[in-house]
């Protein structure tokens, strides 16, 4: 299976597929699924959905097709079992690794005529820019309630125990410019407002929340008290519902109160892009995966993550009992990105075994 995964990885990685420009790769995976006998379609947003009849309860297999910029000219290099970028762009293993695992496991199931449950394969688009493909998925006709998401999180084979919510926030501080050498009461320093919020980037709430300010713009010149400031930030948190709302409201209050103290105004807006979720360790499909890993002598691990994935939409919003199995990609989104083919092969073999066992339960 290793050689097959490698071939599939290369064929997919060389296709340009940044978010909202996935048409070429969707055609490629559609052809692969059709060749394996899947009843395949694309939905309005561009997701590829394939269905293969089987025995038992249907299982969803998910990975995303899009990647981050530059997203072009990927030429994977190989050293032993390690695939790496050529140094000019990312490797594109996020999430081509997940797509390759699913395709080659399906290939083994079909060509070797192994027992399997009804399979619903959903290759989604626009994951990297807001999980839009997964949010748009409509799988009602398949009756699927459980599944596995293959994406990067930790070491290969690790399972995400809970995923954080993601709230984007935008702030505009409106002060008043003045000369720093004259009467400062005639101005309102927008940067001072930010400093007076007391907000610290990093972890909060005993490790349950992370706050980050990623983009900030303020000031016109060295010798002008800045009258305006804009910033874009995010909150990632395991808090849910009213607890999460209270945490975001606390941020807004910090800006509002600091602005009032400094004779300024503030505009604060938020948009929740992902809901938090927590996996029940007793779920049948997860227990099957755990047994497969442990029976071959592997170590089964569950870890929480602040990194969003399609699982936030599929589980957090749609209520499907999915869990993320990590593909083990290292240094993702960077020119130092790598992935281990032997680990991908093991994940593929584990998936085949899980599907065989699921067909008998």
Automatic annotation (TrEMBL):
Binds 2 divalent metal cations per subunit. Its cofactor is Zn(2+); a divalent metal cation. Keywords: Hydrolase, Metal-binding, Zinc. Zn(2+) binds at residue 64. One of its GO terms (molecular function) is metal ion binding. Pfam families: M20_dimer (PF07687), Peptidase_M20 (PF01546). Residues 167-261 form the Peptidase M20 dimerisation domain. InterPro entries: Bact_exopeptidase_dim_dom, Peptidase_M20, Peptidase_M20_dimer, Peptidase_M42. Belongs to the peptidase M42 family. This is Peptidase M20 dimerisation domain-containing protein. It comes from Candidatus Woesebacteria bacterium RIFCSPHIGHO2_01_FULL_39_28.
């Amino acid at each position: 299976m290793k050689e097959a995964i490698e071939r599939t990885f290369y064929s997919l990685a060389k296709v340009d597929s940044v978010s909202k420009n996935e048409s070429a790769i969707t055609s490629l995976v559609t052809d692969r699924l059709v060749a394996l006998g899947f009843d395949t379609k694309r939905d309005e947003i561009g997701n590829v959905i394939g269905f293969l009849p089987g025995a038992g309860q249907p299982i969803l297999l998910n990975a995303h097709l899009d990647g981050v910029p530059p997203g072009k000219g990927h030429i994977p290099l190989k050293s032993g079992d390690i695939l790496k970028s050529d140094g000019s762009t990312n490797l594109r293993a996020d999430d081509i690794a997940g797509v390759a695992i699913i395709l080659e496991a399906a290939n083994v199931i079909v060509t070797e005529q192994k027992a399997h449950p009804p399979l619903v394969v959903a290759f989604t688009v626009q994951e990297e820019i807001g999980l839009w493909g997964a949010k748009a998925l409509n799988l009602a006709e398949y009756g699927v309630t459980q599944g596995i998401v293959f994406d990067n999180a930790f070491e290969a084979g690790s399972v995400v125990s809970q995923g954080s919510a993601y709230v984007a926030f935008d702030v505009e501080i409106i002060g008043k410019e003045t000369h720093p050498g004259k009467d400062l009461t005639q101005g309102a320093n927008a940067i001072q407002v930010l400093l007076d919020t007391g907000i610290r980037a990093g972890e909060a709430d005993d490790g349950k929340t992370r706050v980050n300010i990623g983009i900030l713009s303020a000031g016109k010149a060295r010798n002008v008290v800045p009258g305006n400031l804009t910033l874009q930030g995010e909150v990632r948190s395991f808090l849910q519902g009213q607890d999460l709302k209270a945490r975001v409201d606390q941020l807004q209050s910090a800006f509002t109160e600091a602005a009032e103290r400094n004779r300024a105004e503030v505009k604060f807006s938020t948009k929740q892009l992902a809901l938090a979720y927590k996996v029940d360790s007793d779920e049948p499909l997860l227990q099957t995966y755990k047994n497969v890993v442990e029976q071959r002598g592997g170590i089964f691990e569950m870890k929480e993550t602040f990194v969003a994935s399609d699982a936030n939409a599929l589980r957090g919003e749609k209520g499907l009992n999915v869990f993320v199995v990590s593909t083990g990609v290292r240094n993702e989104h960077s020119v130092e990105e790598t992935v281990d083919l032997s680990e991908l092969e093991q994940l593929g073999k584990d998936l085949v075994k899980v599907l065989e066992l699921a067909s008998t339960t």
